[in-house]
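In the design runs reported in the main text, the only information available to the sequence generator was the tokenized backbone. The following block is the verbatim input for one such run; it is reproduced so that readers can re-run the procedure and compare outputs position by position.
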């Protein structure tokens, strides 16, 4: 856990709390440690020398949970599968942005999600999940984790509290509920999971089974800039850092931030599985964190203009943009209560898959590609790409239409994006 007892981990000045966007420039790093370099160098090393045999032994005892009296609180640098200076600075800053106690970074978003779920669940237990989820997560929970004795029960992301309680009762009938896993807003339909309901459900399940389940939230769509699940009761927040936090479509990474108790289990499994992140990618993410707030705010402004254009276009049946949710509706009230931005990724529906393909093939500025949260606008047809592995009947139950298109607006001039969509929609 990051300790605010060193000058380079200072969080306030004369009673003034420093904001995350300021802390991303320097928190967790002291130039004195690296020849006065303003930016951390890249530590391309597999292993680290110990000051003594005793130090090495103590570090490994701490890492393996076998600490003895007199051992340090945290292991020093040992081996880059466990820790590395670039990794430690990145984890400090991500934890700070999320308001978490600790953070672990991983080789991909799915590495973060799979390590988190396998670290917190166990054979014979049940994951209570909202649906829809990102296609890879959906397939992991439904198709692969049952091979390890981990079952699941789902509830629709937009369900009311009584429906979610019914799903919880079904899960409890199958076994111990170890994890409540949610993604909000959902990918790609932008449905809202009520995290306040989930937090109350954690307490209810604890009373019924005598053990508290972990609440895990995938916050990739809105990021730490637009939503703070830790403040809403989450134990762990997971990200595909590839998306907004990385933000330049040039790296693959993931993270999990959360409570010390939950992260101890996740960190331990990461060490055994080797799903850690390499130093160079950690360094690239440190660069990206310096501008994540600026990029996400600029993209959100452009997204609103694009969404308004699509809403008024005769060939577009529906626009699933968070900024259009009305106060007084279930989704509108949930959005207002737990989010501070509508983000820049949303879906819209055309008449058919064929119409969607014709429109996508006619685009000239936007990039026809999977992923989201980059500086450039990315657009795709999820039903045939990112969510292809999800059963078609399940997709239909989740609210997919054949002509659903996902767009992640970048930081280009939105007028240019609108011109591109206008000419492409002629072909739909």
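Verbatim output:
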């Amino acid at each position: 856990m990051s300790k605010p007892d060193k000058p380079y981990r200072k969080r306030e000045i004369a009673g003034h709390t420093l904001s995350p966007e300021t802390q991303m420039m320097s928190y967790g790093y002291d130039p004195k440690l690296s020849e006065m370099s303003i930016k951390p160098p890249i530590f391309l090393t597999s292993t680290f020398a110990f000051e003594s045999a005793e130090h090495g032994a103590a570090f490994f005892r701490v890492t393996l949970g076998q600490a003895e009296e007199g051992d340090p609180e945290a292991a020093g640098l040992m081996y880059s599968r466990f820790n590395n200076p670039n990794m430690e600075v990145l984890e400090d800053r991500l934890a700070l942005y999320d308001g978490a106690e600790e953070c672990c970074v991983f080789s991909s978003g799915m590495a973060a999600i799979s390590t988190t779920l396998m670290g917190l669940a166990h054979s014979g237990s049940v994951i209570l999940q909202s649906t829809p989820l990102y296609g890879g997560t959906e397939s992991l929970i439904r198709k692969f984790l049952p091979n390890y004795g981990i079952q699941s029960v789902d509830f629709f992301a937009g369900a009311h509290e009584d429906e979610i309680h019914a799903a919880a009762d079904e899960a409890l009938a199958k076994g111990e509920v170890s994890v409540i896993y949610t993604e909000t807003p959902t990918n790609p339909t932008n449905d809202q999971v009520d995290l306040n309901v989930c937090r109350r459900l954690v307490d209810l399940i604890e009373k019924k089974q005598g053990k508290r389940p972990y609440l895990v939230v995938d916050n990739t769509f809105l990021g730490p800039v637009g939503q703070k699940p830790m403040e809403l009761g989450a134990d762990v927040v997971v990200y595909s850092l590839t998306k907004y936090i990385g933000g330049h479509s040039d790296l693959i990474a993931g993270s999990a931030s959360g409570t010390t108790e939950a992260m101890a289990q996740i960190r331990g499994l990461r060490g055994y599985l080797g799903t850690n992140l390499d130093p160079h990618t950690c360094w690239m993410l440190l660069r990206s964190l310096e501008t994540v707030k600026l990029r996400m705010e600029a993209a959100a402004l452009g997204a609103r203009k694009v969404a308004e254009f699509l809403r008024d276009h005769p060939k577009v049946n529906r626009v699933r943009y968070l900024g259009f949710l009305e106060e007084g509706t279930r989704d509108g009230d949930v959005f207002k209560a737990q989010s501070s931005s509508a983000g820049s990724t949303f879906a819209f529906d055309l008449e058919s898959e064929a119409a969607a393909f014709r429109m996508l093939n006619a685009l000239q500025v936007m990039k026809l590609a999977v992923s989201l949260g980059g500086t450039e606008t990315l657009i795709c047809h999820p039903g045939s790409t990112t969510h292809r592995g999800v059963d078609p009947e399940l997709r239909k139950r989740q609210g997919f239409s054949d002509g659903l298109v996902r767009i992640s607006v970048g930081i280009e001039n939105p007028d240019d994006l609108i011109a591109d969509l206008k000419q492409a929609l002629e072909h739909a």
